[in-house]
Amino acid sequence: xxxxxxxxxxxxxxxxxxxxxxxxxENELVAQLAVELLSEPExxxxxxxxxxxxxxxxxxxxxxxxxxxxxxxxxLGPLAVHPGFQKSGIGSALVNQGLEHLQKEHTDFVLVYGDxxxxxxxxxxxxxxxxxxxxxxxxxxxxxxxxxxxxxxSSPCQVRCVEPLNDPGLW
Length: 171
Description:
alpha+beta; Aminopeptidase; 8 strands; about 30% strand
């Protein structure tokens, strides 16, 4: 397996990956999001490949804090692994590589909206995320989590996302 930055030329495979990895009720929405994020200049998107086929994808999109524009934050999502390769460590490798990159870049915090049991193993926590007000009402508030590398960045604040994430249907 090889992990590398995603490019615009990966759009078709990334869309197909998300269509196969997510259920029918959300796969089109998440596939479109993944493709749109490729056009955002500050998004750190990664793909995992095997034999030149994309089998995994993770996007880390910048978020802004209204009261503290100098804080650097990101949100992880979407994360997808082809159904035939799930539970083989690809998702973990993508998350770990993305987090390592962001920490080296002096990122203050990383948010995620997902399963606490899965993301907790990377250090994401639910309780500190309560200080970060999401851009929309969450369908599953227990899934809002954060890793804080700069404690000063965790005072109560409103989170703003890149345009592709500004869809209430994603939250």
